[in-house]
Design brief:
Helix 1 crosses helix 2 (about 160-170). It is built from 4 helices and 20 strands. The two termini are about 30 Å apart. It folds into 2 domains: about 15-220, 3-Layer(aba) Sandwich (Collagenase (Catalytic Domain)), CATH 3.40.390; about 235-335, Immunoglobulin-like. The chain has about 325 residues and is mainly beta. The strands form 6 sheets. Strands 5-4-6-8-7 form a 5-stranded mixed beta sheet, with helices on one face. Strands 13, 14, 17 and 20 form a 4-stranded mixed beta sheet that branches. A 4-stranded antiparallel beta sheet has the order 16-15-18-19.
Length: about 325
């Protein structure tokens, strides 16, 4: 069996995920970079974000097919009612993704050396102002692709993968809301995913990732909130500790008992602090787990002190998230495996 390709972000100028900040990031892992002694979130300051589509094709996907699929994926993000993010199609270009031309370009490139990468997003940041000025997405043409409405066996769904990568282009990192198992041929196979931004693709033929989930919506709304969004939603925050010390990199998920919405984040500093924003008010069950179901470097820098040696833990009490406020500090103690 062919290993399932990873959809990994390759940041040309961006140095790391915003994961080692002194205060926890809300709602979602965000991409970020170091600038002038500061750690900044990667986001567009001018919206709508213009983009171009490269005049490239692969068997089964013409340039016009490619453009329509990409436009649908951009529209899916732009239609999130609680987010102000927007995009502006600028048409076809003969430029290729990866060229530093101050144009955000999406297109096919042949990268046989990246035999587990379906697509990747790169960024160009202004070295003086720290402003994001370009983000390119390439789709690896060594894989078979499809734009068929119902998907095609043996071919990867372009719209689904584009939706994931446009999340990165917008500034979102990976979500850990998913389950995998090792495949016979190596790598991991997705069993279930609770977010489009889960870092491993569904098998070829699946179109399951054409629809955003609650975690994706919370993330994009946190980065580009509509007016009043913080007042209509709430957050839960606290500490994850083990043997009395903070746990870095613990995955914390909040499950809304009434709506079934599932939104996650991580403990992001040495004190084990976490905060999950963009939650619908009401009762939530929290779950804390180690990041042992995917490759850690899909979420954090290689030198991040991520702790994996602890058991899945559910706090004993239900947490009520208030409208326009925070739950108050929730203390969660985990134990070793």
């Amino acid at each position: 069996m062919t290993p399932v390709p990873f959809r990994r972000t390759v940041a040309v100028v961006v140095l790391a995920l915003v994961a080692l900040a002194t205060a926890p990031a809300l709602a979602y892992l965000k991409l970020g970079f170091d600038f002038d002694g500061r750690r900044l979130s990667l986001r567009w300051t001018r919206v709508p974000v213009p983009y171009f589509v490269s005049q490239t094709s692969v068997p089964g996907v013409s340039p016009s097919d490619f453009q329509l699929a990409v436009d649908r994926a951009f529209s899916t993000w732009a239609e999130v009612p609680t987010s102000a993010v927007a995009f502006e199609p600028r048409g076809i270009t003969f430029a290729l993704p990866g060229e530093d031309d101050e144009r955000s370009t999406l297109g096919f490139l042949a990268r046989p050396d990246l035999d587990r990468v379906l697509a990747s997003t790169s960024f160009l940041v202004d070295g003086v102002s720290g402003e994001l000025i370009e983000a390119d997405i390439f789709f690896n043409s060594v894989f078979p692709w499809s734009v068929h409405p119902g998907g095609e066996a043996g071919r990867y769904d372009l719209e689904s993968v584009a939706l994931h990568e446009i999340g990165h282009l917008s500034g979102l990192g990976h979500s850990a809301l998913g389950e995998t198992e090792f495949s016979a041929g190596g790598g991991r196979r997705v069993i279930a995913a609770g977010a489009v931004m889960f870092p491993i693709a569904f098998p070829a033929g699946s179109t399951a990732d054409r629809t955003l989930r609650a975690d994706d919506v919370a993330g994009i709304s946190d980065l580009y909130p509509e007016p009043g969004f913080p007042d209509r939603t709430g957050s839960v925050s606290g500490h994850v500790t083990k043997d009395g010390r903070g746990v870095f990199g613990a995955h914390v998920a909040a499950f809304h008992l009434s709506t079934g919405a599932l939104v996650g984040n991580f403990s992001l500093n040495e004190d084990g602090e976490f905060s999950i924003a963009g939650l619908a008010p009401g009762p939530h069950v929290l779950r804390v787990e180690p990041l042992d179901d995917v490759d850690v470097d899909g979420f954090f820098p290689a030198d991040a002190p991520v702790t994996l040696d602890f058991r899945v833990t559910y706090p004993q009490r239900i947490v009520v998230v208030p409208r326009g406020g925070d739950s108050g500090v929730v203390e969660i103690e985990v134990v070793g495996k």
